[in-house]
Design a protein that fits this description.
eleven-stranded mixed β-sheet, 21 strands, 513 residues
């Protein structure tokens, strides 16, 4: 074959190939379509009374028109094909709405309600569904609440943000669907709906066993020297994982180590993993607030949790862009075997860290459930009362309902001869010890820091006098200071006394990071 013919054929082949590539690129552009993350789906609830962020993708430079009811907004995608805008504020009432998004294609979302939207998040006790809780058969029978909706997110841990989880959609509460709803989230929503008459939407993203640091933007943790030890552990682990992954020939021991590290790399404890793998797909969706039930996985680092938990809330609020939205959490329940003698307890220290957060975090509150746990089961089935205690906070603080919501809490103490007298807040309704008349759960110690079970007496003014013959010169009182304490103090309104201690002696988790 001469050179001219060879050149001609080669040229023709190149032109044909380029033509194919151009056609493919053109077809790709023509096949692009407007897309929304899965949190925008049929049956969703939009937060009333505020502008609500909506976002998606399409061709670069594409005009996007969003219509809901009789209102429309327009925006244009940026050079990466991303668009974001806000829907106008809307009021509760009227028929369900349709949302229409028109770009290079059209998306229509139906059966939209305007109401109150809450995040329900944390570990397995928030994830635990109605089918796993008390009386699931009765709860299903009575679950016809078309104005209560929930969306359940998957459990995916990543260091890169996941934009959407397409297989997860909003569901309406019915006898057929409610069994898979977060039980705490559902009972919280039901109480709010029954009280206010407003539609309630719950975004359930809880992940059993998750550590608080996995819910935080990793850059925020890296920027805070208080978490240097925590971050170093993970950086070292990641380096080992990278080395083993790059090594094509691994010994059985190395392969076993790599298999174990794979679980950590994509699990629910690595800093930023849940923030990216779950939270980012709906972070910014219009909400009223959040309820949270977590802490078990951080109990061994309770002193660190004093800083980590408020930081997580602050991070969420900053990135959500809705100011200091309400954030209510559940204090750890009682768990494991009861012990007759006082001692140290990581869970008691974690509960203390949770209580401290109320003084650090604005617009926050804690539901105490030291009476609701089960010694034999870290997942107590009574989720109804947990949801109700959280609902008390929301009803009192967000919906103007005059209702008791704050558990009695330690205020101050003083020494009186061989006893200590303890004063409390939020016990205006008076005391009602459970089961027996005498207060139980108090211990007392002198300067030797050795605690003894104490006799406690309710004084006429509501203070409690605590003493023990073994402690002639007391300096500290503790209450319900154990994994599973024997305690019985309630206010007359049914809310349990918050576990506490009057000392600040270093605990067993003080040096853990």
């Amino acid at each position: 074959m001469n050179r001219e013919l060879l050149f001609s054929k080669t040229k023709s082949l190149l032109i044909f190939s380029c033509s194919l590539l151009a056609s493919a690129a053109f077809a790709l552009r023509c096949s692009a379509e407007v897309k929304l993350p899965n949190v925008f789906s049929d049956h969703m609830v939009l937060q009333q009374g505020q502008e609500n962020k909506i976002w998606g993708t399409d061709n670069a430079g594409q005009k996007i028109t969003i219509t809901i009811g009789n209102q429309s907004v327009e925006t244009t995608t940026n050079e990466k094909g991303v668009w974001t805008t806000k829907l106008p504020p809307m009021k509760v009432g009227g028929d369900a709405l349709k949302l229409r998004v028109q770009g290079s294609s059209v998306i229509e979302i139906n059966d939209i309600l305007i109401g109150e939207v809450w995040i329900c998040s944390g570990q397995s006790n928030m994830q635990w569904n109605v089918n796993q809780s008390n009386d699931p058969d009765l709860e299903r029978l009575s679950a016809n609440y078309p104005n209560i909706r929930m969306i359940n997110f998957p459990q995916i841990g990543r260091q890169e943000a996941i934009w959407t989880h397409d297989d997860r959609k909003w569901k309406v509460s019915t006898p057929e669907t409610v069994g898979e709803f977060s039980a705490v989230g559902y009972f919280f929503a039901r109480q709010l709906h029954q009280t206010t008459g407003v539609p309630i939407g719950m975004i359930n993203n809880a992940w059993g066993g998750s550590a608080a640091e996995a819910w935080v933007n990793r850059d925020v943790l890296k920027a805070d020297p208080k978490f240097d030890g925590l971050m170093k552990r993970w950086v070292d682990m990641e380096a080992i994982h990278a080395t083993l992954s790059a090594n094509k020939e691994r010994t059985p021991e190395q392969q076993k180590q790599l298999d174990g590290l794979n679980g950590s790399m994509f699990g629910n404890a690595r800093p930023g993993n849940i923030y990216n793998g779950v939270l980012k797909s709906h972070l910014g969706y219009g909400i009223k607030g959040a309820i949270w039930y977590q802490g078990e996985s951080n109990a061994g680092r309770a002193y660190q949790y004093r800083e980590l938990f408020p930081l997580m809330i602050q991070n969420w609020r900053q990135e959500w862009g809705q100011g200091d939205f309400p954030f209510y959490w559940v204090q750890l329940a009682d768990f494991e075997a009861e012990k007759a003698e006082p001692g140290d307890s990581p869970w008691a220290e974690l509960r203390e860290a949770q209580t401290m957060a109320m003084d650090k975090v604005a617009n926050s509150g804690q539901a105490v459930i030291i009476d609701i746990g089960e010694g034999k089961d870290i997942h107590p089935k009574n989720k109804l009362d947990v949801g109700k205690r959280l609902a008390r906070w929301a009803l009192a603080k967000e919906y103007g309902i005059s209702i008791d919501h704050q558990s009695p809490r330690y205020d101050s103490s003083e020494v009186s001869e061989s006893s200590m007298i303890v004063k409390f807040k939020y016990v205006e309704s008076g005391w009602r010890p459970f089961d027996v008349r005498e207060p139980r759960g108090f211990t007392i110690a002198g300067e030797d820091k050795k605690f003894y079970n104490a006799k406690a007496t309710i004084l006429p003014d509501g203070r409690i006098q605590v003493s023990a013959p073994e402690v002639p010169k007391p300096v500290s009182v503790r209450y319900a200071w154990a994994q599973n304490p024997i305690c019985n103090m309630f206010a007359n309104n049914g809310l349990p006394l918050t576990p506490f201690r009057t000392d600040d002696w270093p605990g067993v988790t003080a040096k853990n990071e």
